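Hi C.,

You asked whether I'd gotten around to modeling the 437-residue construct. I have! Everything is below, sequence then structure, no commentary in between.
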Amino acid sequence: MKIKLLMTKTLLLLFLPFLWGQKQNLVQCFTDSVSFQVESQYTLSGRHTPIYLNANKFGLSSVKGNNGYLRAGIFGEKQLDNSRKWFLSYGADLAVARNFTSPFVVQQLYADVRYKWLALSVGSKEHFANLKNHWLSTGSQTLGVNARPIPQLRIEVPDYQRIDRKNWFALRGHLSYGTMTDGNWQHHYAGSKGFTYTDKALFHSKSGFIRLGNEQKFPLVLEAGLEMATIFGADSHNFSNEFPHIQMKRNAKAFLQAFFMSGSDVTDAGYDNAAGNTLGSWLLSISYKGKGWQARAYADHFFDDHSQLFFEYWWKDALLGIEIQLPENKVIGSLVYEHIRTKDQTGPIYHDHTESVPDQISGRDSYYNHLQLQGGWQHWGQAIGNPLFKSFLYDEVGRLYFKNNRFVANHFAISGSPAKGNSRLANSTSVSCSLVS
């Protein structure tokens, strides 16, 4: 409740730069540069919706067959001063749905204030994945586009800002704290069947990226960065006979532990790991820009807790991709190939150090799962990261557990504009295929 109250107060404070010194009324402020969106979709399938129709839609989708939604949104942006330094943007994006995890969805509801290169955002907002083609990639392994947006207070540098005069080096990043909204749904889906579930969970994420190179002066550009996230501060129910109800801390220390990936859980039994469900990815991208074309190779290495965060263990699991943007033509615009491997997970053995055996072996990571926070890296039943970690909703058992988290996949995708210039046909088309074993 405290963080929700804080977000509400901050949402109101975001409008103060506009209200202070403005000579026009409040109604006029929201009528400049406003766009409206109305969208409807219905999926006809069997018992379940195929993954490729359910995935990477920011959670506005369903695994149940014969599902659909009607969606309406309003979005706006306003310049707040004559010097073009302050900007306000906002959005309200709502949907009514059939055969979803909830019949009414607040997909986006946010307000952003931006001063020069620094932005402050409050609310639920869709954020694209880092260093990947949003339309063609399978998605990031940590902060993807597969689950519903999480309401959060987020401060960020959204665009690269140069740190030298000639723009050879640039930085960007973000820091956020928020709250998960699926506690009641977890109680209905898992708790009512006697399985472990959590509510009142808090969320933290951060990222930092550096760009080396200037494609205007040299065709080769390197981008590298780190994404880290934590779900913490939750109440865990039905965990065990010994711990039927576990209440995690939500004080200032808990917020700091989430930031530093430190602390411990009750279930650690003296072998401190990290409080909550902590994970992240190292990201790397190398691109070359030619005359009318561009090629890029990228990598996404996922780590769970501290194992594989650095080089204590060999990085056997990763998402590796290649993207090619072709010269302008009437058939194909971009091609993407990705290879994903998640079978190692730091090895098959886990052993905490003891007096008799002092060696620590941090294996059996079980990606996206967490012992105490059942459901792990998910929101409303969908993986927050990559959708190839198949949603447990397909099992219809009631347990919040990703059992299909060890796989090898090859993904191909192309996009183009074969009907460009013909208003009766779609202007852009994409096709993708993933082979998973």
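If it helps when you're writing up: The helical segments are 2-13, 16-19, 26-29, 51-54, 183-189, 252-260.

Thanks,
B.
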